[in-house]
Design goal:
alpha/beta, Udp-n-acetylmuramoylalanyl-d-glutamate--2,6- Diaminopimelate Ligase, Chain: A, domain 1, 6-stranded mixed beta sheet, Rossmann fold, 6-stranded parallel beta sheet, 24 strands
């Protein structure tokens, strides 16, 4: 039974990061705790390995940076020269075993084929994997010459591991030209057994091209202007030494201009070209020789509304151009676009289900937060839905929309003026592909008159006239809700700016509740350290009756089941069992009996105290015969005061992630946000909304 996988590359710059990121995300969705170890790094100990930082930071792993590696390349070479390579392996095994004892699965990443240990790396990777006793996933870099060369190189690295008695679970050929994808996949099947998972991944310009931030990092450049554009990709670069009219002929999309700092004509011409519809986008401008534009030119640049990053270096133009050519694209923790692009490519081209069956040979109990979040994203991606975000001008909404569009999880619609949204995105430094997001301005929309007439017909019995209907329909909450009602989108998420009532009122007016449901309620998915619990109702109903409480419990149990959580319902009170007396306890007791009568299939206990519901030790003492006590997954609070304070207390004191509130009982999904919500809150709530829409 394997508890780890070793990721080994065939060459430098093989694209190992794509697989490491994709596998980590896959594993975190299937196992409780995943460890990460990169035994040998290529940087000095006084510097940090960017890839370790990226993995730990992006996936929020509970791993100290210094525990994630063992040796630097220089240290390995020194040990080898002293005849102490055995000490290297022993130390790596010790660190791996320490991590293995702490985690359910450990992802071990092999060497980078860069720096000091290059000459011994192939042998070293085999030696480490063999001594750790774990299988390997091989990443082979496609040859630019031919598919035959690619297959020969891949067969060589495969045989190297097999001859070293290391089991190979998967072989992935990366950076394949799209014309050779099918041919490469067919040829792979000829050189490895059928039991080995194989695939070919195409070359990606987005991942292979460096960003302006990487130029800053590698060339130690000073950023003079355009900090918000540092993640701009660079597809090509050129030296601005000729006259401007000739230099402009060389521009291509995402072009980096390298020019002496005193060439004001090239600098201003490049900025103007970037703003012109007749020229490609400029990624940035790199000023050489330690020269900077004169004060008048700097003041002119500072007053422009559209400024690309302008950098300055001390080196001369020729040396600078050479340095730029030597910068290899990397994935850094702050470059979310590249990370999300890597995950998308991995999910699209790697047979994840087949690979999972190879990797995971054990089952875990319950639903962990990482598993819950992974499963949510996975479900949303498999059956894409359309979600409208009415508060398009809010910076958090824009950033969440950018993430959702990049991951291609849902089809996002933002309400607002497209030019205003573009300016806002530029101002806050959010890179949004507006081609992937639909923008609608309610006041000028082609849907407005139809929406006005529909609202008038639905509400005229309440005294609404046509002018009132028109005024109402320019409100983004009403417009977004009408889009849901009309089927133009599948769900809505709002409340980052507007109040809960402002979000829910339109839904109650014309989306209305499901048949048999009399009360709209809410749940939070509380992602704690080792479990996910469903809390209801913590946002909507101040003091529900026994009948309403029963309905909330049934809706919450169904919501839990819909999201892969086995519902074991605890009806919370200040008393457990039959001992307590009083109106509040009686209400909970009555609600429990109503649920049992309506849904005998549900496991439910009530009244029960919180500690008896979640703590097996307390449950054994207070309610030893209960099938819910000590292992409740759905916790129903008797009133809003108790529920809202409890979820916030747990969230603040334990660091639990509270996803929601998710509204229950409406015919179509409309969900509310807190005005203090984060970008992640919006992101998660949109995914929940998309999953709710799948059930309609």
């Amino acid at each position: 039974m394997s508890k780890a996988i070793y990721i080994a590359a065939s060459h430098s710059n093989s694209g190992k990061s794509i697989v490491t990121l994709g596998l980590m995300r896959l594993l975190l969705g299937k196992t409780t705790k995943v460890g990460y170890l990169k035994p040998i790094i290529t940087v000095a100990k006084n510097k940090k390995d960017f890839h370790i930082e990226t993995i730990i930071s992006h996936f929020d792993l509970d791993i100290d940076y210094h525990d994630a590696f063992v040796f630097t390349g220089k240290e390995v070479i020194a040990k080898r020269n002293q005849g102490k390579i055995g000490d290297v392996i022993d130390t790596i095994i010790k660190q791996y075993k320490k991590m293995e004892s702490k985690y359910d699965f450990v992802l071990v990443e092999g060497t980078d084929f860069e720096g000091d240990a290059t000459s011994v790396e192939a042998e070293l990777n085999v030696n480490i994997a063999k001594n750790l006793g774990i299988p390997v996933l091989i990443i082979s870099k496609a040859s630019k010459e031919s598919v035959d060369n690619t297959i020969e190189n891949t067969k060589l690295i495969y045989d190297t591991f097999r001859n070293g008695d290391v089991e190979v679970l998967s072989v992935i050929v990366n950076k394949v030209s799209k014309d050779n994808l099918i041919k490469t996949e067919k040829r792979l099947l000829e050189i490895v057994p059928k039991s080995v998972v194989t695939c070919a991944v195409p070359f990606s310009n987005k991942l292979s091209n460096p960003t302006v931030a990487e130029i800053v990092r590698e060339l130690d450049a000073e950023v003079m202007f355009g900090v918000s554009g540092l993640n701009n990709p660079i597809s090509a670069y050129g030296v601005g030494a000729m006259q401007l009219r000739n230099h402009l002929e060389h521009y291509v999309e995402d072009y980096l201009v390298v020019t002496p700092g005193d060439r004001a004509d090239i600098i201003l011409g490049s900025l103007q070209a970037n703003s012109s519809k007749n020229y490609p986008k400029v990624a940035g401008i790199l000023l050489t020789g330690g020269l900077k534009p004169e004060a008048t030119i700097l003041r002119l640049i500072d007053g422009l509304s559209d400024i690309v990053p302008i950098l300055s270096v001390q080196t001369g133009t020729f040396e600078t151009a050479t340095n730029v050519a030597n910068v290899q694209a990397q994935i850094y923790s702050e470059n979310t676009d590249k990370i999300l692009a890597s995950l998308r490519i991995f999910n699209k081209y790697v047979p994840t289900e087949e690979l999972t069956n190879k990797l995971i040979k054990f089952e875990t109990k319950g639903m962990t937060p990482k598993m819950f979040q992974y499963n949510m994203v996975d479900r949303a991606q498999k059956h894409k839905k359309r979600v409208v975000l009415p508060e398009g001008n809010d910076p958090r909404v824009l950033e969440a929309a950018a993430m959702l569009a990049t991951l291609n999880i849902v089809d996002v619609t933002l309400l607002g003026d497209v030019e205003e949204l573009k300016i806002k995105a530029e101002k806050i430094g959010v890179a949004i592909n507006f081609d992937k997001i639909k923008i609608i301005n309610p006041s000028t929309s082609e849907y407005l008159e139809d929406f006005v007439n529909t609202f008038y017909e639905l509400r005229k019995h309440k005294g609404i006239n046509i002018d009132m209907a028109r005024d109402t329909m320019t409100d983004v909450s009403y417009f977004g809700t009408m889009m849901v009602h009309k089927g133009l989108v599948d769900g809505m998420v709002s409340g980052a700016v507007n109040t809960t009532q402002h979000t829910i009122r339109p839904a109650l007016q014309f989306i209305k509740t499901k048949p048999g449901v009399s009360v709209v309620s809410s749940v939070f998915f509380m992602c704690m350290e080792n479990r996910v619990s469903v809390f209801g109702d913590c946002a909507i109903n101040p003091d529900p009756t026994a009948e309403q409480l029963a309905e909330i419990a049934i809706s919450s149990a169904d919501s839990a089941a819909n999201f892969g959580i086995e519902p074991r319902v605890a009806m919370l009170s200040y008393s457990s069992g039959s001992s307590g007396k009083g109106a509040q306890v009686d209400k909970v007791r009555t609600a429990t009996e109503i649920v049992k009568a309506k849904r005998p299939d549900l496991k439910i206990e009530g009244p029960i105290q919180y500690d008896a519901a979640v703590d097996p030790g307390v449950a054994k003492s207070k309610m030893p015969d209960s099938e819910v006590a000590g292992k409740a997954t759905v916790l129903i609070f008797p009133d809003l005061n108790t529920g809202n304070n409890t979820y916030k207390a747990i969230q603040r004191e334990t660091g639990a992630l509270a996803i929601g509130p998710m509204l229950q009982g409406l015919n179509k999904p409309v969900n509310d946000l807190s005005r203090g919500c984060t970008v992640d809150d919006i992101f998660n709530t949109v995914i929940i909304t998309a999953i709710q829409a799948q059930e309609l």
